[in-house]
Design a protein that fits this description.
The chain folds into 2 domains: about 60 residues, no CATH class; about 140 residues, Nucleotidyltransferase, domain 5 (2-Layer Sandwich), CATH 3.30.420. The protein contains 8 helices and 6 strands. Strands 1, 2, 3, 4, 5 and 6 form a 6-stranded mixed sheet that branches.
């Protein structure tokens, strides 16, 4: 097949990294007739481009078949497992343990259209729409994300984020947060429930490695405002083994 017909298509190298991680065909079932690389490219075309399934170009498999695999892997949490495996591989390549011990938590309110769905008003940002609550490790790699109405407070969103952490976050012990997460109740709950220590202050927002987190939100995230001197950044990185 061609290497890339669309910008969202996987490169040869990316496909080599994930092809063995995709769910295998079930035994005693009819052999798969579709090329899985085409299926994954079709899924990426939809989710990256934000189009309807029925608008898939004709050079992809039928949209019904693509949607079938998308829903099947979603219900089976295969997407989450694939993401966790890739994050662990990236961390090991960088000389880190596969399970992060430290991370950073922030949120971003974004405007939405009139398409039906959950919406709310964020009075602090004067935005009507949704809010993305994002937890990343110290390399900016995504660990957990929750989308809520923009009216949901950061502290409430943080509880939902932590509740969705799976086994890949079992070693997480410290999370940097900003002033929006202040409150002894959240800190106490995080410590008692997950043995987490929440660390406030502006320093975590300014570390260079948090620039990668902005890309996880599609750009435009306000997770950092400046780069700190290298020695301070290295001290913060050292917390995450």
């Amino acid at each position: 097949m061609p290497n890339q017909n669309y910008p969202s298509d996987l490169t040869d190298s990316q496909w080599e990294h994930i092809k063995e991680l995709l769910p295998k065909a079930k035994r005693h079932r009819r052999p798969r007739e579709l090329e899985m690389r085409y299926v994954v490219n079709a899924i990426l075309y939809v989710v990256v481009g934000g189009i309807q399934w029925r608008m898939l170009p004709k050079d992809f498999p039928k949209w019904q078949s693509v949607y079938y695999y998308f829903r099947l892997w979603h219900k089976g949490q295969e997407w989450q497992r694939l993401h966790d495996r890739l994050r662990a591989e990236v961390r090991r390549t960088a000389g880190r343990h596969k399970h992060p011990t430290a991370g950073c938590l922030d949120s971003q309110s974004v405007k939405t259209t009139q398409v039906p769905g959950v919406r709310g008003f964020d009075a602090a940002k004067n935005i009507k729409g949704r809010k993305r609550h994002l937890l990343v490790d110290t390399r900016g790699l995504l660990m957990s994300i929750v989308v809520t109405a923009a009216s949901v407070q950061e502290r409430d969103g943080a509880r939902m984020v932590f509740a969705r952490i799976n086994g890949s976050g079992k070693k997480l012990r410290r999370v940097w947060v900003d002033g929006g997460y202040r409150g002894s109740s959240l800190a106490t709950w995080g410590h008692d429930t997950f043995s987490l220590r929440l660390t406030g202050g502006l320093a975590w927002r300014r570390t260079a490695w948090l620039r990668r987190a902005a890309a996880s939100l599609g750009g435009g995230a306000h997770l950092c405002v400046a780069e700190l001197p290298s020695p301070l950044e290295q001290r913060l990185r050292s917390v995450d083994r």
